[in-house]
Specification:
Length: about 850
Amino acid sequence: MRKIGGWGNTGFLPFLRGAYLPKKWIKAIPITGIFAMFLFLSLAGCDKEIDEHYKRPDWLESPVYDILQAKGNFKMFLSCVDKTLYSQVLKGSGNYTVFTPNDEAFGRFLSEKGYSSVDDIPLTELNKIVGYSLVYNKYETEHLGDAQISGQWNVGSSIKKRTSYYKTIYKEEVNGKEEWVIDYATEGSGIRTPYKYIPIFTDTYFSTNRLDASDYNIFYPQKEYSGLNVLDGSILNKDIYAENGIIHEVNSVLYPLENLDELLKKPENSSFKNYLEYKIDGTALFVSYQEDKTLTETYKKVYPDENITSLYTKQYITLPYSPNVEAYQGKNSGNTEQDGYTMFIPNNSAVDNFVSGKLLKYATSFNELPTDVLTYFLSAHMADGMVWPSNFERAQNTNGEFLNGKGDSGLSFAESGMLAKTMASNGIMYNIDHVIKSKYFETVYSEILLNPDYSLLNAALNNFYKNSLLDDLMKSPITGYVEENVIILIPSNELLKEDFSYNDISLAFSFADGATHGTINAEDRLKRLIRMCIFKRIENDEVHTAIKDFEGSPALGYDGYGYAVNDYGDMIRFKDGQIQAVGNILDDDVVTAIEVATLNNGKVFAIDKLLQFSPRVTKSASNEGWEDQKLYTFIDSYVKQNPDAQVFKNYLDKTIYTATDGSIAGISTSGFYTILIPTNDVMQKAQQDGYLPALSYVEGLQPDSLTKATNFINSCFLSGTVVSDDGVARIMPGNYEKINLGTVYKVNEAALDLIAEKTTIEVSKKSNGNLVFTPKNIELGLTVQVEGITGGNSSVNVVRGIDKSNYMGPRAVIHQIDNYYVFKVNLPK
């Protein structure tokens, strides 16, 4: 192979003073190379006339080469230099930092590599060794751990420096054929001179980043951390000034580190690498090779003996970063010297077992799953930034997940199955004995994502709830949520197709029959049905509100039923593994739930029918089968089965109900309500105590009586939340010990300057889980303007019984109560 100036295809084509290059070679150099040459020209030398004009002062230090030669203990390094064009760099002008291995270090290197002398080292290797020892710009040891940003030293922020060595074209398989390939220098750039960086481990960087000697010894266990280490060596003699830079003597030969992409080519990383290169229908998902015809022609001239027919640029797409890019451009990138990337690579058996046992548990190949599955898997093993052992417990991957699965309460670095630790030129690679846990594969969402039978549900979640409900389904210790618990009922594609169709192109849902049903559109109905299947709870050492199963609660007092409020805000009831929402009750139908998985944030149940908020089965031919029942119809049904609520309804009918349209004044058709209905005896007691006028006065439309009765009835409607009597120690969802709910009754009293002032009821629970309701005062300073009063100053409690309370309706529930409460306005005297 023909060498240009003795450099070969090892990356670096300098244009040096006194170095003659034939015209045809100069023409063959790519534009980027020409630019680099002229840049180097400005740094490395001047033309002869300028040299004559600006003679070297006698007091100026000698060039690097001369100083090393004079010292006498760098003979082997200089012998390497002499065989390359770097000799012109070290003899010429410029501004470099040179990490120079002494002869003792070189002797060890020759012995370890099996060379008898420097003469045995191939030229390509010599260029690597010398080029990697040269760092652009002069760095005294005081600033080796600092980065220069906007002309200012950022102390303790630099972990590496850019060297003069970069890898040029190399061979790799592309579309089943070995081709020439070249890397980009940075993500998305057109520059193909990926200069390698050399890590420098300094006390300033370590103290700034709260690291210690163990963080160095993890990578170089047989070496001593000195606070001025370069790779596995230490700086012995520092800050030796030269005309064209500065010299630091090191006790190790510095050989270029491989980047992450190069490390991935090792056999122990093959399974993981296979998925980085995975193809579906012949198209690679992540790695991209793009033929560059212009660059091909350029490099044909640069390397005429290499038989280059095509040259491809390599990059990774749809991943957090490209492992083959040398320059760091991640979230912490003020300067590429300040950070790098980290990859955690499971061994082959760990990857293979995880893929077969988890990712392809329900599918036969990745063709049946969203392409995101592999993206999530790979991203779980990629961190944006250098993850040091000391910081491992707080470190997260690019999915925002703790690498140890639990954060500070999780396993330490030493306990985390590290098989190998390798410093790379663009970051760090850890080989591990396990797959990193991900929220996508360890939470309840995984059963939806990984099972093709639930692809429509997955599409709906991503379309409607990408950054909200979907995130809630993945809250777990992996992302720092240690007490969140989710129960989800998952409707299959078969169930959803009974009512809905999905357009893969427009990503829109519509009713399967193409018709319009009532006032609700298909997507709004689907959104509600999905949220009706989700139950968010809390589970920790003190609070246990998780729904363990749907077998019911015999001790609760409702014929064995258990109750819960779903994410939408509707109630369900359940017993013997069968569930009903209000629509299922109206249809006299049940939904059977079967547990299919327990994950780290809850449980997943398969269902044989959809939960319904309307009588979808029995009245599908009319709007009634698709829309919420009217609230008054619901109350009327309740009273028919519980005559002990008749007196309340009599007052309701004469105050806020309008018979012509079936509406209730002050009630929103889209609101959520907890309705508290006193028994007939309690209503009678309120009359006797003077807080409720006789019905005859109300029927007679006497203004004061009508207002008083209206306020009484309005105060029985608590708005905003459906509160179930579920026997759980907390009010769910929300995990409240107590909650204040506004009533429909608003106080208007000019004498107190109260205009539509909201009245509130405090809802709490006794130790046995029974609901208690307490009216709250409206106060101004120490003055009680409106006083919340209960009958006989006794508590107001739920009356349990299947016909009494937990009566489920449209965004509502009715509880019967054993006492009354009122809000008494205290007018100023």
